[in-house]
């Protein structure tokens, strides 16, 4: 599996349906990943739309050296960090409906996290620092390799390994406290 | 939460909007920069032309101006092309030729031929920047100008000064 590269190639050749395939394949995962950073479902969805629109606008930027999924997640991360920076500056007024927000997030989690174990980990994951949270998300939920994760996180493999090790330890402590032993 | 169709539409709408915006920005930059670039090119070309013209006139002045001194008997020949030499030598000759004392050699009862056949006689040719030449003959104490056909009888001091300024003492 080439993680979307062939679909994108088809899209570049003029096949519009290929883009729909890419969206179906990665949109929810991208929102879920971005939400790890921004903790705001609507903003995550908005950022994901922008990331996908990048694929349409800057067609020549993707060089097929990494998988399309990795590339999309790289855009998503970069846009999420930008969003956080701007949000912190502007201290935006939150007009989102909290109930809807919880509902949306839950729906998305149910779509992506079919496995019960993953849902439990996801719950505990929110208590981790950002870097650890994202590393666990990419490796455990998105099943990306260390190399792909290091590209998205802009860290080297050793750093990813260390982050994952520390994240596992912290998660173990959290889950033990809550009576669950996962690892 | 948007459904899939809404998301797809939103992606396409935003993409279209961004592409249009890109084109607009590109055009704006093009329309702003093109006249400035054209002005710059015209100005620089004009500037270069004037600089080249200035350099060329300089070159003409340097390359064409010279002073050529040779002895009548062919034992001495020298050309001076440096601006400093040309200015010095021309000034010293002109200082003599412009004196009110200048007069015809006949006034002294001498014929110019007698001076020309003298042993220490030189032909001094001054070539000016416009390529016009002034030819002087220095024969002993007589300086003649071929162009104006004037004769100048020089005092010993004037002769010495001229010999020094024309570097003829080293002969």
Describe the structure.
- The complex is a heterodimer of chains A (183) and B (171).
- Chain A has 9 helices and no strands.
- Chain A has helices at residues 5-12, 16-38, 41-57, 68-90, 98-112, 116-125, 130-141, 146-153, 157-177.
- The mean pLDDT of chain A is 83.
- Chain B has 171 residues and is of the alpha+beta class.
- Chain B folds into 2 domains: 1-64; 65-165, no CATH class.
- Chain B has 4 helices and 6 strands, in the order H-E-E-H-H-E-E-E-E-H.
- A 6-stranded antiparallel β-sheet of chain B has the order 2-1-3-4-5-6.
- Chain B is rod-shaped and about 115 Å long.
- The interface between A and B is medium-sized, with 17 and 13 residues.
Number of domains of chain A: 2
Q: What's the number of structural domains of chain B? A: 2
| Structural class determined from secondary elements of chain B | alpha+beta
Mean pLDDT of chain B, nearest integer? 78
Q: Please outline the major beta sheet of chain A.
A: none
Series of secondary-structure elements of chain A, N-terminal to C-terminal: HHHHHHHHH
Order of helices and strands of chain B: HEEHHEEEEH
Q: Provide a count of the helices of chain B.
A: 4
Strand content of chain A: under 5%
